[in-house]
Amino acid sequence: MQDQAGVVVSTVSQAWRAQRVVIAVPPLLARQIRFTPQLPVAQAQLLERAQMGKIIKSVSVYPEAFWRKSGLSGGLNADMGAVAVTLDASPRGGSPGVLVALTGGRRAEQLARLSTDTRRAVIQERLRTLFGPQAARPVAYHDYAWADDPWAQGGYAAHFPTGALSRSGAGLGASFERLHWAGTETADAWRSYMEGALQSAERAATEVLGSKHHEHTSVHPNVEINKRREKVWGG
Ligand SMILES: Cc1cc2nc3c(=O)[nH]c(=O)nc-3n(C[C@H](O)[C@H](O)[C@H](O)COP(=O)(O)OP(=O)(O)OC[C@H]3O[C@@H](n4cnc5c(N)ncnc54)[C@H](O)[C@@H]3O)c2cc1C
Fold first, then answer.
1. What are the sequence ranges of the domains in the chain?
2. What's the topology of domain 55-148?
3. 189: CA distance to ligand 1 center in Å?
4. 126 and 134 in contact (C-beta within 8 Å)?
5. Which of 34, 102, 193, 199 to mutate to test the pocket of ligand 1 (most atoms within 8 A of CB)?
6. Is-contact 87 73, C-beta < 8 A?
7. Which atom of ligand 1 lies nearest, measured to the CA of 29?
8. Which end of the chain is more exposed for a tag (fewer CB within 10 A), N or C?
């Protein structure tokens, strides 16, 4: 809840008072927050239209990066099968060998429906086809279906229906009085990546610092941010 005096953030067990709040949770989580007063309609609608990408990341550990001996980099992109991307995540010396595999989209949805053991078997069978029999015998294996994580609900990031971002995408990160937005989805560049998250954090921090020194002025001191806000919300 925000008013002239500040912001109150309430959870089921506690409440905090602040002058400014930065919301840095993914859009699917942000739309579960109740805002008083309500968010601008266009911003609320963008949050409603967000969908989270689906991704499963698996890590297979071997005594050594055996693929290097065959002259393979360990990295590939595949447009079919249970594994879409692999990366050699081993230390420079190649021991232990660590092969990361990523599966996204519909294939990730299918894999997420399997039991953990079956999913492991399917991914390792695919790695065996791609890298040879040693790939099916890791000494350790872990995977994680990010759509099942209640605080992420998917990954790499949220995506939007065609046209939604080009029409009003900048509004996602537009501050609303004392509320400021960060998170990779609100970035101007490298959206969906770490770099986008960092860029958005710098922008949100600049907004808050600017407003702190000018708490009693109605015009935001950051000219660039004001220009963007005017463009998005019409002033
Ligand atoms: C499998 C996978 C691989 C990736 N690989 C790469 C890569 O190689 N390079 C790259 O640049 N990017 C990669 N990414 C993307 C990168 O992780 C994200 O772009 C980045 O983490 C986004 O940062 P963020 O701060 O916007 O959101 P997040 O990192 O999602 O942080 C949001 C935080 O908010 C918390 N939260 C959620 N809801 C609430 C709530 N109600 N109250 C309090 N806290 C809450 C969450 O627990 C989380 O800690 C990958 C993502 C995935 C899933």
1. 7-51+159-233, 55-148
2. Polyamine Oxidase; Chain A, domain 2 (3.90.660)
3. 16
4. no
5. 193
6. no
7. 38
8. C
> What is the 109 CA–ligand 1 centroid distance (Å)?
19
Distance between Cα 152 and ligand 1 center (Å):
7
Q: Please name the residues in contact with 33: beta carbons below 8 A apart, sequence gap of 6 or more.
A: 23, 25
- For residue 48 the two structure tokens come to 């409603």
Residue with tokens 């002058």: 19
Separation CA 21–CA 72 (nearest Å): 48
Per-position pLDDT tens, the chain of length 235: 999 999 999 999 999 999 999 999 999 999 999 999 999 998 999 999 999 999 999 999 999 999 999 999 999 999 989 999 999 999 999 999 999 999 999 999 999 999 999 999 999 999 999 999 999 999 999 999 999 999 999 999 999 999 888 887 668 999 999 999 999 999 999 999 999 999 999 999 999 999 865 554 444 444 454 455 455 545 4
